[in-house]
Amino acid sequence: MSTLLAATTYDVAAVRADFPVLGREIGGKPLVYLDNASSAHKPRQVLDAERAFVEQHYSNVHRGVHTLSQEATDAYEASRERVARFLHAPDAHEVVFTKNATEAYNLVAYSFGNAAAGSRFALGPGDEVCVTEMEHHSNLVPWQMLCERTGATLRWIPLTDDGRLDLADLESLVNERTKLLAFVHVSNILGTENPVDVLVARARQVGALTLLDGAQSAPHQPVDVTALGVDFFVLTGHKMLAPSGVGVLWGRRELLDAMPPFMGGGSMIEVVRMTGSTYAPAPERFEAGTPVISQAVALAAACDYLDGVGLDRIAAHEHALTGRLLDGVRDLPGVSVIGPDTLEKRGAAVSFAIDGVHPHDVGQSLDELGIAVRVGHHCAAPVCRRYGVPATTRASSYLYNTEAEIDVLLEGIVTVQRFWGR
Amino acid sequence: MSTLLAATTYDVAAVRADFPVLGREIGGKPLVYLDNASSAHKPRQVLDAERAFVEQHYSNVHRGVHTLSQEATDAYEASRERVARFLHAPDAHEVVFTKNATEAYNLVAYSFGNAAAGSRFALGPGDEVCVTEMEHHSNLVPWQMLCERTGATLRWIPLTDDGRLDLADLESLVNERTKLLAFVHVSNILGTENPVDVLVARARQVGALTLLDGAQSAPHQPVDVTALGVDFFVLTGHKMLAPSGVGVLWGRRELLDAMPPFMGGGSMIEVVRMTGSTYAPAPERFEAGTPVISQAVALAAACDYLDGVGLDRIAAHEHALTGRLLDGVRDLPGVSVIGPDTLEKRGAAVSFAIDGVHPHDVGQSLDELGIAVRVGHHCAAPVCRRYGVPATTRASSYLYNTEAEIDVLLEGIVTVQRFWGR
Amino acid sequence: MYQEIILDHYKNPHHKGLREPYDVEVHHVNPTCGDEVTLRVKVVDGVVEDVSYDGQGCSISQASTSVMTDLVIGKAVDEAMSTGEAFLELMQSRGQLEPDEDVLEDGIAFAGVSRYPARVKCALLGWMAWKDATAQAVATTGEGSA
Amino acid sequence: MYQEIILDHYKNPHHKGLREPYDVEVHHVNPTCGDEVTLRVKVVDGVVEDVSYDGQGCSISQASTSVMTDLVIGKAVDEAMSTGEAFLELMQSRGQLEPDEDVLEDGIAFAGVSRYPARVKCALLGWMAWKDATAQAVATTGEGSA
Ligand SMILES: Cc1ncc(COP(=O)(O)O)c(C=O)c1O
Ligand SMILES: Cc1ncc(COP(=O)(O)O)c(C=O)c1O
């Protein structure tokens, strides 16, 4: 029994010790950091790996024969392989490093926009791109812009009252005109985990490509891009223990090789003449200029850290914390969850509203208690509009949070209610 | 006299001590790092500043009311102000953080491409973009791609035999049809410093906008964007003591405010509805998604470091090293400089050819002596073609290089000649 | 940050509710949090005769709008505008400015807010709406002293 | 890295110079360094009868092309192709593979090059050109054993 326990849990205190900021006090209170869906902190191991690389092996990559250049290139390419393994991708050439998730969506959108008429990526009037009403702005605005540029039509899958995708009209929303279905794996505002299999099956029926926004799934659960069956998968480093400044577009090799380039510049070219240029194969084709070298090295170290703890254990830990939070909120009068209020198919981000208290005031009052939560539209303004709220308060836990911290939050909510209810 | 000397020089040994990698040995020989035009190393002070920020004040920016979020936002925006001061820009809102220089050119190119017909940025058949034959691929390919997309015509200012711009036909190359003149301040392959005043004056006569590629000037000499009189200025952090993953587009506020967005996503928006979105003012409009937060903080620390030593002193130091190298090479039979072989109006990058030895073999043989130089086309293939060489060997010094290192290189060249001349 | 003055104005806002007559009505939104205000202005003989408003938002935006109405109603447009400037300056001071109570009255309670950039926009929402509406009123009716 | 064998082939390349007769001629370029090779192949009865070439480039690309001609001329296309595979495998081994001298002969001198990714492309330039030309020759002339 205790062996079983040991195999499914980990030493959260030991993990916490790796994150210096968790020792901070905010206004005399211990920091309770529950803003992980916005960005996570970085363990010493990741920072040390990046620094060791920069201090002893740094150089530009890909273009040199000297020793440091070889070492830096090796480290950078090994990071690509590490990320491919993290995603269970069959081929490291399918991993493109970007600066964040947002660049990855724009890369695909502009590449599609740049495609010659008649190509499988080209879009025009009559073609459609489908998203969902719960997309992060980063997986929505690029498609709006693409449709504006090309004359294609943007459609979206609406939401049910309890924060799930309303699939009633899926067949008409994803149809023979649909070129791409781009949707979020786990919502950053509602916490909802979407049924990838159902959506991918429908997309395949009509020959649409699929792009899965994994910004909120890759940090929190094992991801196998082959098993998911999608064509593109996107993640962002800063939400999964890596520094800001690095993201990943994974795409099936056949697609990446066929897509026209996005940004032009050094490293993405083959032959450059003043009169015109030809382009390198993927992934180089999509990494114009000096890449995010040390950030990629740090991301690989973050993969090591996460796999070291075990993503299945992390998922189980967060599941327990989320359950405790949902149970606690359910017991509080005047507090309601926006999004699924059960544990089924949901991630660790929990949005809620406190009757009569504006989220800004909730966030600020919790901050005075040392509790860091996010307030606002969480870059998903259409979701707020859908549920008739100007903004939400969101608590999101990660591998280093504890049950005690959830309890501090729950007490904090009561304190806020008392203060503002006077 | 000694006061004067003290005011115009600095303690190179003390500077070197700040760069851990400079203590490395390569194959038993002390590292002589002369690949700075490709990328520079980073001093402890910059790495410490980044780490202190990440370990104690990190969070996502712009979207939160909690303390860490405020601290991170303050640090990020203070970095913007620091870079503005570094460039003598009148307004920090004119500083856009990108992931590298390459993203900055693409940002301008796509923004122009996205402009509505009739706007001052829109391009079409009959319009022209002018560059030079010595551009880095990153300031060439984006304009080729833009012209392909819009039907505009790309023109270029050719080169003289001694590595300067041939301005004989400037009046016809930059004409009333020219919308943009994009050119490099200091060439990364030839070392040439271009006459910004002449080019800007001509562009103004015809109402063309100007973009100056400062990737090789900002790290090495004081830059005053107002005095230069250009409309856009670009730099990249990794060549000026900051980590990879951060670059800067500076643009006149009036222009940035009027330009349509490039990438869509979080932070760059104002109101998002499923049916369409409006965009934030600059610089946010151009910083979609989670920005390069800790990299911007590190770049600000790099500005501190460079201004601490003094860019005029750094320029003087490099000038002396470049003179020593040019003099030394001039005395070596069978070695010729590609680019200006005098000190007048040139930077610290010196390309050369050794008769009968391929640059790859030069680079590899020098590496065996601990000397890191770059060999290849240096992302400026048209320059190699212009001078009839497949590639060049390039040595480029920076603030931490010494006269002794230049001498090691000169001896190394003789060793290479001896080895390959057998 | 949550001074009593702020809480009082939040609970019991002054001059709230839309009133007739008015010269100009504007609608301002803070896109980052969805706070919004609808505001009307009446200018007579260069004097801010009335400001009425309705809106929803956080304590800071609501209280600040309430304080604003106290400060501008009955003042000459010029004087009210410079009070607005003083408030703007305070909000941009990042906690570095000692506010002048003679000028800003209850507005001094917002000094602490200036240390929170994310909340500065909240505190300015009503002021920006008022400035916009008043400028329009002056322009369209030929009112004001300029 | 610069083994004597490599230097010898570089100074005195084997089978260099373009010759008649040939089935196919190809031109390959290494865009990162401008190295180029023009290469001709003659296949008779499924055997690589002749390979001739001209080109310019670094010692590695030139020596490797020279070694390649020694290894493939006179061999059955199939056998020559698998020698090519063995060389490719060696070059992608990052210094981790012990090369088989019986198969690769002078080619084993390039084992050290595999530790330098930037030079691997140089070592493969001639091989890639040969493979391309031979595949075309087999396809167009119906030659080859497959
Ligand atoms: C002159 C010049 N322009 C632009 C660039 C591109 O910079 P980055 O690769 O950081 O985008 C470089 C360096 O590679 C350069 O030397
Ligand atoms: C679901 C989701 N998608 C996309 C993003 C965008 O990530 P980034 O800002 O790193 O580009 C985020 C986070 O901000 C997110 O939560």
Walk me through the structure.
The complex is a heterotetramer, with two copies of chain A (422 residues) and two copies of chain C (146 residues). Chain A is α/β, with parallel strands linked by helices and 422 residues long. Chain A has two domains: 3-37 and 310-419, Aspartate Aminotransferase, domain 1 (Alpha-Beta Complex); 48-307, Aspartate Aminotransferase, domain 2 (3-Layer(aba) Sandwich). Chain A contains 15 helices and 17 strands. Chain A has helices spanning 2-8, 12-17, 44-56, 67-86, 101-114, 141-150, 170-173, 196-206, 225-228, 253-258, 293-309, 311-330, 359-367, 381-386, 403-421; strands spanning 25-26, 29-30, 32-33, 95-98, 128-132, 153-157, 178-184, 209-213, 232-236, 247-251, 269-273, 276-279, 335-338, 349-354, 371-372, 374-376, 392-396. Chain A has a seven-stranded mixed β-sheet with strand order 4-10-9-8-7-5-6. In chain A, strand 8 (209-213), helix 9 (225-228) and strand 9 form a beta-alpha-beta unit. In chain A, helix 3 runs antiparallel to helix 11 (293-309), helix 4 (67-86) crosses helix 11 (293-309) and helix 5 packs parallel to helix 6. The longest helix of chain A is centred in the N-terminal third of the chain and has 20 residues, at 67-86. The N and C termini of chain A lie far apart (49 Å). The mean pLDDT of chain A is 96. Chain C is of the alpha+beta class and 146 residues long. In chain C, 45% of the residues lie in helices and 18% in strands. Chain C is built from five helices and three strands; from the N terminus they run αβββαααα. Chain C has helices spanning 4-11, 59-72, 77-91, 101-104, 117-141, and strands at residues 24-30, 35-44, 47-56. Chain C has a three-stranded antiparallel β-sheet, with helices on one face. In chain C, strand 1 (24-30) and strand 2 (35-44) form a beta hairpin. The radius of gyration of chain C is 14 Å and the shape is globular. The termini of chain C are far apart. The relative contact order of chain C is 0.22. At the A-B interface, helix 3, helix 4, helix 5, helix 6 and strand 11 of A face helix 3, helix 4, helix 5, helix 6 and strand 11 of B. The structure holds pyridoxal-5'-phosphate (2 copies).
